[in-house]
Design goal:
Number of helices of chain B: 4
Oligomer: heterodimer
Number of strands of chain B: 5
Helix content of chain A: 40-55%
Strand order of the largest sheet of chain B: 2-5-4
Strand order of the largest sheet of chain A: 3-4-9-6-8-7
Structural class of chain A: alpha+beta
Helix content of chain B: 40-55%
Largest interface: A-B, 28 and 22 residues
Shape of chain B: elongated
């Protein structure tokens, strides 16, 4: 009740400060006036009466001040007093304060850092309309283990006609194009979208407008610019709307500019529309988003879509065996990194708990030393609530100081961590990457830090409060100055804290141990090629344009051949080759069916499937993919000669058990030549990720199979920055208008593909190390405190004939026993908890006995050492000195 | 002229409650009433009255309202709340007990021990 009244007083004091102030003034002045009137009536002149009244009133300002304080209530006042007292106490024991703040800074800082990452990546919404109802729709074919492939335009049209789960569907295609006529030729990344683009995402254009639905009825060369492209290319010119621009040799009209905030959702440069005819013939690898109707769940929509797919398969047999995959758009973006972040969020929580346990232990030890002080104050009439508040003020102050230091630590470590995270991360199983949101400390993070600081302060402040408030005043005053020597209750609390610390540390170190093992497994996996000294970049021949010289497949093949000749002549190039898709880059996918001519036909409905790759003759040598049998491609494998293929080891193993594949023939449906002889077998390549097995792959000579867009791979011993200009020049010698893009080192690609594991690995190791150090400090602190407290007892024991070894055993036992209990509990908990991180683990089971054993051994060793150091001090206690100590 | 005495610490609240219990009044009126009912024997530093009044309001023992005084000036009037009345009874009782105990103690003679 009193507290409520205080709060009310405080609130009204704050909100009505000025009002209360003038009221106060008026009341006091009225008093002086009354008095002056009375004095005047007794015969004094008005001036004298006034002066006299003021004198009688006393110190006007002083009483006004006191009155103001009385109005606001004492709550504020005593709070200030508590804080001042706490500051004094903390200053008096700088060692304790420093250790506590450092411990808390580590705990809170780690939490803030991980929360910053999680906040940016998991909890933030995309800046588009109803972003939580948007889902990505893929099709899949589990028979061929194609788990996520882009649908075709016809799928989109069928779905749009039939679905009842979605308000609207949106179709798009990523692409690149060449902008000419405005300075140097420039490769732009773009989206081709259905004309409901603006309405679907609720986009309010920064300038101009978005597409109109009816603009899909004919081919309209309209273009919307991204904010950044508009800034860079057009210098933020506001009159850009209505201007013309040449893309792939065609004239487009700029109709609008996207607002800056949607750039995280659409990271391209330009947006152009699909027309209806184009949607009908667009064959595959498109992107479809759907906006769910309100109240429809993803599961409901999934089951509807799967039923739809069965109906579609009856009309279009090419879709037989296909289903659909629906994933919320917001979780797709972070799907890859999410498990790592969740594990880290759990882990930092543990670190904070360990830090809390440590500081609680320190406070407990100190409070035992201060027990007499507390008892005295209780005896003198201090309320227990008041005492508790003082403890809380002390602990909260510590936690806030720790939080402040932690914030700095977090700022620095997020900065450090972001250096190891690439800006793009893969979308699992979808041959696609997404832009990672940028990470920075913001208001949410500050509030989070403040909240956990206060919470932390309360958590570890409560432990000594319960301990002290239950103490018997009389007993405490009676006992010696050192406080209760080994009050069983205090010891039990400390042992309990040690058990908690031991268990938490064990779980964390187990997690880190598994991660270390898994990561080294992952990195020791050979991708099937030699990734060092490999430079890759992509070239696209603009055959979309009407008058493109590259329409003819033969012309395409010849052009890439000319590039190669020029590039191979560049000094420093050891070897160079073209490939349709370079492994691990997630650039694209090419999968299809094939038939082995020499094998009996499969039952109807069953088909063999494989990845297809068009490569130039030197590809295997350049990549360092070993030839196992037969030969690689040569310049002779061109359109004038017999069609040939090379298969990889994994395809040979899968489909040619106990047969020699060389000389056998593959028939490949679709436009490729029907029959091809197998001339070689090469090693398998992990194409989609280090943790995936090599998929069956068929290599076709690029001299027999044309592509519009290919990746160049160059093996060089020069630094890439040094050789890149020469390579670009070599390309431009063939065609001045060709842009070169996606320039990457293979090492960088690998960094990107392993980034989730890398983050988990680095951060979890750091956290586990932190946990280990904190636990060691905790056990060391408790043991050495106990030794200090028991000096007299040890002295007596030694005087009575105890050997140093006995003392050592007793002291070490006291510290190690709760730690072993903690290890046992941690072991059981870890068996359950590590399963949560199994998706991050590669080549190691979540309950790997070696890791568990090793970590148990490590922690036991750390506990022993942490106990042994103070125990040695106990052993050297001189009985005479110890006894005289009294 | 009567001899004026400084009031004992802690008794100001009791005096204010008593004065207000005789009827609502503004600060100056309370001061005058205390002087009057104590036979001008008790000296109160005038300004000290106000922090005490505000404290009592905050504790819920008094309530304050702005009104007009008999000579038509705006003034803040204090009145006793139910809790204030209860507190007054309690304090009166314990004061009387204290006074009689102290009186008895001071009246003690050597042979009574």
């Amino acid at each position: 009740m009193r507290l409520l009244a205080s709060i009310r007083g405080l609130m009204s004091a704050i909100y009505h400060r000025s009002r209360a102030e003038s009221d106060l003034d008026e009341e006091l002045r009225a008093h002086v006036q009354y008095r002056a009137d009375d004095l005047g009536r007794s015969g004094l002149s008005p001036e004298d009466a006034k002066r006299r009244a003021r004198v009688e009133f006393g110190g006007y300002q002083k009483f006004k001040e006191e009155g103001r304080e009385a109005l606001a209530g004492r709550f504020f006042d005593s709070l200030l007093q508590d804080v001042r007292f706490a500051l004094r106490v903390l200053r008096k024991s700088p060692g304790f304060t420093a250790v506590a703040i450092l411990t808390l800074a580590l705990g809170i800082g780690a939490n803030t850092a991980i929360f910053t990452l999680a906040n940016a990546m998991i909890f933030q919404h995309l800046p588009v309309r109803a972003s939580n109802r948007l889902v990505v729709i893929w099709i899949n074919n589990m028979e061929h283990s194609w788990s996520r492939i882009g649908p075709a335009g016809q799928d989109y049209l069928n779905w749009k006609d039939r679905t009842k789960s979605f308000e609207d569907l949106f179709l798009f295609e990523h692409g690149t194009g060449t902008v000419t006529g405005q300075g140097e030729p420039e490769q732009v990344a773009g989206l081709r979208v259905t004309t409901n683009f603006g309405d679907f995402f609720g986009i309010k254009p920064f300038l101009g407008r978005t597409f109109l639905l009816e603009e899909a009825e004919a081919k309209n060369n309209l273009m919307i610019l991204s904010y950044h492209y508009w800034q860079g290319k057009f210098g933020s010119n506001p009159s850009v709307v209505g201007r013309g621009i040449t893309l792939n040799g065609e004239q487009y009209t700029i109709i609008g500019v996207l607002p800056p905030e949607v750039s995280t959702a659409f990271p391209g440069d330009v947006v152009v529309p699909f027309d209806n005819a184009w949607v009908k013939r667009a064959d595959s690898d498109l992107g479809v988003f759907g906006r769910l109707k309100k109240g429809v769940t993803v599961e409901q929509a999934s089951s509807e879509m799967n039923v739809l797919m069965q109906g579609i398969a009856r009309e279009r047999p090419s879709r037989k065996g296909y289903g659909s995959v629906l994933v919320p758009l917001e979780s797709v973006r972070v799907e890859y990194i999410r498990p790592a972040l969740l594990v880290l969020l759990g882990a930092v929580g543990f670190v904070l708990l360990i830090a809390c346990a440590n500081v609680a232990n320190l406070m407990l030890s100190r409070s035992v030393g201060r027990q007499k002080e507390f008892a005295l104050r209780v005896a003198l009439g201090a309320g227990r609530w008041r005492m508790a508040r003082q403890f809380l003020a002390e602990s909260t102050l510590l936690a806030l100081l720790g939080g402040g230091a932690g914030l700095l630590l977090a700022w620095w470590s997020t900065f450090l961590l972001m250096k190891y995270v690439p800006s793009r991360i893969p979308v699992p199983n979808a041959a696609d990457t997404v832009l990672l949101p940028t990470v920075h400390l913001d208001g949410t993070v500050l509030i989070f830090t403040l909240a956990i600081s206060v919470l932390t302060g309360i958590i570890f402040g409560l432990v000594p409060i319960f301990q002290t408030l239950r103490c018997d005043v009389y007993e405490s005053l009676k006992e010696g100055a050192k406080g209760s020597l080994s009050s069983p209750r205090g010891n039990r609390a400390r042992a309990a804290l040690l058990i908690v610390e031991g268990a938490l540390a064990f779980i964390l170190v187990i997690g880190a141990g598994l991660m270390i093992k898994s990561f080294s497994n992952l990195l020791s996996q050979s991708p099937g090629f030699k990734p060092d000294h490999l430079l890759t970049l992509r070239i696209k021949l603009p055959d979309d344009a009407k008058d493109s010289p590259y329409k003819d497949p033969k012309q395409q093949i010849a052009t890439f051949q000319r590039f190669l000749t020029k590039i191979q002549a560049v000094p420093g190039v050891q070897s160079a080759a073209f490939a349709e898709i370079v492994p691990l880059t997630q650039d694209d996918m090419d999968m299809g069916f094939f038939v082995i001519k020499e094998q009996p036909p499969l039952p109807p409905g069953e088909q063999l499937s494989s990845d297809f790759r068009d490569v130039s003759p030197d590809y295997f040598r350049t990549m360092g993919i070993p030839l196992i049998q037969g030969r690689t491609f040569t310049d002779y494998d061109n359109l004038d000669n017999a069609r040939v293929v090379i298969i990889d080891e994994s395809l040979a193993r899968h489909f040619f058990t106990n047969q020699n594949p060389i000389g056998k023939h593959l028939q490949i449906p679709d436009s490729r030549q029907p029959e091809r002889e197998i001339v070689g077998i090469v090693g398998g390549v992990r194409d989609t990720g280090f943790d995936q097995r090599p998929r069956p792959t068929i290599y076709l000579p690029s001299l027999q199979d044309s592509d519009q867009s290919m990746s160049l791979v160059v093996r060089t011993n020069l630094p890439p920055a040094a050789i890149l200009p020469a390579i670009k020049n070599a390309i431009w010698k063939v065609d001045r208008d060709l842009p070169v893009f996606n320039v990457r080192l293979m090492d960088e690609v690998i960094l990107q593909i392993t980034s989730a594991q890398r983050i988990a690995f680095l951060a979890l190791d750091a956290l586990a190390f932190l946990a280990l150090v904190l636990a060691a400090i905790g056990i060391y602190g408790v043991t050495s405190y106990a030794v200090g407290q028991r000096t007299r007892e040890i002295g007596i024991r030694m005087a009575l004939g105890a050997q140093p070894g006995d003392v050592l055993r007793a002291v070490v036992g006291q510290g190690v026993k709760p730690m072993f209990w903690g290890l046992a509990i941690g072991l059981l908990a870890a068996l359950g908890l590590t399963r949560l991180m199994s998706s991050l683990l590669f080549g190691v089971s979540a309950t790997d006995p070696f890791t568990f054993g090793g970590v148990a051994f490590l922690l036991a060793a750390v506990a022993l050492v942490a106990c042994y150091i103070p125990a040695r001090r106990a052993m050297r206690v001189d009985p005479v000195v110890a006894l005289r100590h009294e | 002229m009567t001899v004026q005495a400084q009031i004992l610490p802690g008794t100001l609240d009791l005096l204010i409650l008593k004065a207000v219990s005789l009827g609502p009044s503004h600060g100056y009126g309370i001061l005058l009433r205390i002087e009057q009912i104590s036979g001008k024997a008790l000296l109160i530093e005038q300004g000290a009255l106000y922090p005490a009044l505000f404290r009592l309001v905050r504790q819920g023992l008094l309530k304050a309202n702005w009104g007009t005084s008999d000579n038509n000036r705006r003034a803040k009037f204090y009145d006793l709340t139910a809790a204030g009345l209860k507190r007054l009874r309690k304090e009166e009782e314990s004061w009387n007990r204290l006074v009689s105990a102290i009186g008895t103690a001071l009246g003690a003679r050597p042979e009574e021990i």
